[in-house]
Amino acid sequence: MVQTCGQMPCFSDSLYFVDTHCHFDFPPFSGAETASLARAAQANVRQIIVPAVSADYFPRIVDLAANYPQLFAALGLHPLYIAQHQTADLAILAASLADKTDKLIAVGEIGLDLYMDEPQLSRQLALLHAQLKLARQHDLPVILHSRRSHDQLAAALRKAALPRTGVVHGFAGSLAQAQAFIRLGYYIGVGGTITYQRAQKTRNVMATLPLSALLLETDAPDMPLAGFQGQPNRPERAANVFDVLCELRPEAPQEIAAQLLENSQRLFRLPPVKKFTS
């Protein structure tokens, strides 16, 4: 399938999309993995990174990555589940990272969230710092969640000074905050928020940032795109996000597609897809 931006062909047969953030271990994908991956491939989404939210999900995500060439695993303890995480979960994460295979490519989803009623910031920070330390130890990039916490997160990342850095996913902060992360060597995740006309701040940020700092993502089944409200988000809709990004950016679609792919491969050390199977 040749993806288009409006009526313009976007890229050659050697280019494809990577959904760098999809909770493929959740419904509606669990139990329908083969069909879901086929739908993604039809939209030229050829690789999908699956981040964990808690230790309970680690085995399933590792198995998914082992059984499907298109899937890659990230393991971490999500800040939204701070009340559920146990001290032992960090040891489980450490052991899982020590047993990593080539399909385990990141620590995530980790980060900070101050949008909750009881954020327990000190506990979130302790958990974040412990996981950043594990990422450094295992030479892995990080996939970062941040809501109303960009400044605190940037401070934590500055202190950690990870050599492999990572991505601030689903970014909806200010241009200055995005630039602060980029100066630290981090990428910015571009998702479905930009498909909403009312999200002018985020749309302007993604139009302004260096293309070399952007990654494509869906956060499926969360974060539905404009026109799909009330439906589970899906990895194939990374192509829709790309279309809108093409409308916002000055570069040609071919250049945008090539740079997004290069960024994904550089950060996560993803192998190239050498032959399309559908």
Automatic annotation (TrEMBL):
<dbReference type="Pfam" id="PF01026">
    <property type="entry name" value="TatD_DNase"/>
</dbReference>
<dbReference type="InterPro" id="IPR001130">
    <property type="entry name" value="TatD-like"/>
</dbReference>
<protein>
    <submittedName>
        <fullName>TatD family hydrolase</fullName>
    </submittedName>
</protein>
<dbReference type="InterPro" id="IPR032466">
    <property type="entry name" value="Metal_Hydrolase"/>
</dbReference>
<dbReference type="GO" id="GO:0016787">
    <property type="term" value="F:hydrolase activity"/>
</dbReference>
<comment type="similarity">
    <text>Belongs to the metallo-dependent hydrolases superfamily. TatD-type hydrolase family.</text>
</comment>
<keyword id="KW-0378">Hydrolase</keyword>
<dbReference type="InterPro" id="IPR018228">
    <property type="entry name" value="DNase_TatD-rel_CS"/>
</dbReference>
